[in-house]
Amino acid sequence: MALGLLRRRRSRGASGAASSISVPLPPGAGACGFEVLDPMGQPMGGAEVTVTALDSHRIATRGATDPHGYFIATLPPGSYSVMIVAEGLSPARENLDIVAGVARPTAQVALQPARQLELPTAGTWLFDPPHTAIRFIAKHVGMAHVHGRFTRFQGSIRIAPNMADSQVAVRIDASSITTGNNTRDNHLRSADFLDVERYPYIDFTSTRFAHLGGSKWTLHGTLSMHGTSRSVGLDTTYLGSINGGYEQELRCAALAKAELHREDFTLNWRSMLARGIAVVGPTVQLELDVQAMYRTHDTPTPPQ
């Protein structure tokens, strides 16, 4: 079975539409091809294409369109579902049948703009700790990954009439770090790492919201940890807002991620390795899974 992207040859008629493809077919296989266009009718490079077998529900092949908007694959005979997605655009799905020895005509797919999520109401939003998680993943030196989280924190989001002027502030109790191992957690709290006696808090304050398109934003700001402040960017996906929760209050949600380098915050892992201390590696993946409540005079207090 041969799967994947193959070379293509196309010819265009007077209408400009792709009329044929030519691919080498492995014995017993067929082929399909797609030309993906953006809402302006231009080739959509980088769109994600996933082809799933309808009988087993297993992914047969996946990939991205080339710079000309093309995706071509050879597949065993059978029935398949094809999903095409791109950031900020509505997904396209269609079913197709692959016949051995047959290369299907190229199908032209035009993606349409996705329905835009309504931005949060202007005002102040408060993190709801029971429905918010601040997690991290670090490479255990020479071994597997260490997963951890902070259990005590507070945060607020001030949504401005112009979203780009909005602000986020988060304060984390550094001593609340937990990885499921008491010995490791105590070491992470020690002077070798976070030094929570001298630096009890980790703070993030945003300076600017930058819209990347669709539901994607970058939150530029300053992260202060271990007595050092650095500029960071949080890659953020806005997940929408809804009335719900304790008393059907207005809520919004977002997922933010960043990659941190511990040496940027004077956490010197090399010196610890030299002393035979192998705890976590130099790079940490940080994730904030946030649910916030709109603050009014009767906003409920989250339970502890």
From TrEMBL:
- Which InterPro entries does the UniProt entry name for this protein? CarboxyPept-like_regulatory, Lipid/polyisoprenoid-bd_YceI, TTHA0802/YceI-like_sf
The organism's superkingdom is given as Bacteria
Q: Where is the Lipid/polyisoprenoid-binding YceI-like domain?
A: 124-293
Stored PANTHER family: PROTEIN YCEI
Family to which this protein belongs: Belongs to the UPF0312 family.
The protein's name is: YceI family protein
Query: Source species, please?
Result: Streptomyces lavenduligriseus
